[in-house]
Amino acid sequence: MTVYRIKYPEDSFEVIDLDMFAFAEILGDEDLTLVRSQPRTNEPLASRWGNVECNIAEEWKNKTLPAISYWGSYLIFTQVAHDVFVNSLKPFGEFLPLLADGNQLYIYNCLTFVDEEETQCIRSYEDGYPIGFKSLAFEKNDLKDKQVFKSKLFGTQTLFATESFKALFFKEKMNGIKLDTNLISPF
Prior knowledge:
The protein is of the alpha+beta class. 21% of the residues lie in helices and 34% in strands. The chain has a six-stranded mixed beta sheet with strand order 2-3-6-7-5-4. The longest helix is centred in the middle third of the chain and has 11 residues, at 79-89. The radius of gyration is 17 Å and the shape is globular. The two termini are 22 Å apart.
């Protein structure tokens, strides 16, 4: 089963104008411990979420928004993209509604890890210290029925997708993210 790393397209900008401090304030996270640890702990955020509004980032003012885009370790879905993916992604995460300058958007908080095939995950070292990976692979049985997920071994700030996500993404002519089979390169 092919796995893809979800990446920012070249020369792209985040769609929403919302920083970590504002995000923490929305969540009632005064000391920022939740927003810093959440991608790793997978704590759901929906119970802390209310009617949230923010601005579109200046780079996207008066432009057509991408269907799906990255925002930190989360994905931002337009209403159209949300409607396409909600049934397949909701069992593995949560959609947090967000109104941005009149645009109904959703922050997708992925709450799913897939186990790594550790015999195929080879670390890269420099001067005896681990600096990354030469290869990364996931347990095929754990990928079943999942579309977007995280890796504990690689780091929880990165999202990965399966072939079923890619197929639906292209079938519905979505845009805004890049799906790359090179799982270890950020570019």
